[in-house]
Amino acid sequence: MKAFHYTEIDAQPVEGVPGTNIRWAIGKNVGAPNFVTRVLEVQPGSASPYHTHPWEHEVFVLDGEGVVKTADGETPIGPRMCVYVAPDEEHQFANAGDEVLRFLCIIPFAPWSTEE
Amino acid sequence: MKAFHYTEIDAQPVEGVPGTNIRWAIGKNVGAPNFVTRVLEVQPGSASPYHTHPWEHEVFVLDGEGVVKTADGETPIGPRMCVYVAPDEEHQFANAGDEVLRFLCIIPFAPWSTEE
């Protein structure tokens, strides 16, 4: 068993996404075999690219206000909201407020996901 | 994409564990293929059984104060802490405070985990 505050994990910049950082909090660092729980912080005015990939996201919002953009439009998100993005679904997470948008984003391990 | 507040998912009692409920928040209900994000609420004085199973837990604490008991002893946990419990590792989550202990607990889907 491992227990630690999420801030004990180093925050890394996200390549190509100024104003956003990521912590690979619970994953290969602790020997997890199947998926990784990451903590994302998106500063006001920042957003992930509108993009797609063959793996899903399970997201739980901790702090801040944002919008999720998909092919169906924009959906507001805030604290304690759950978001599910399916494999191959286009999506973007954007900060829509004045404070940091902080959320957990869990993804599976797979051959296409060797990072960390 | 699906977005909803976690309280929109019904809280279910946990069989054999009075004072604890669970929401299967992001999983087969939204078509997720690999793992499920659950929200657990443990009332003051309540605890999960000291038990083991062949799948891991990735846990993120939202509210309250607790302890995780393993074969190595007891470890305090609180808000924004991460916990990793390995497959087949004995463990127990107990509320150690006066408020609800609320945490996310993510587990993989597998043949032995057909629930929900």
Terminal CA distance of chain A = 19 Å
Rounded to the nearest angstrom, the radius of gyration of chain A is 14 Å
Structural class from helices and strands of chain A? mainly beta
How large is the share of residues in beta strands of chain A? Answer: over 45%
Low-confidence segments of chain A, given as residue ranges, are: none
Mean pLDDT of chain A: 94
Question: How many runs of DSSP E, i.e. beta strands of chain A?
Answer: 10
Helical element count of chain A? 0
Task: Tell me about the largest β-sheet of chain A.
Answer: 6 strands, antiparallel
Task: Give the quaternary arrangement of the chains.
Answer: homodimer
Helix content of chain A: under 10%
Order of helices and strands of chain A: EEEEEEEEEE
What form of chain A results from the Cα inertia axes? Answer: globular
Strand line-up of the largest beta sheet of chain A: 2-3-4-10-5-8
**Largest interface, Cβ cutoff 8 Å:** A-B, 40 and 40 residues
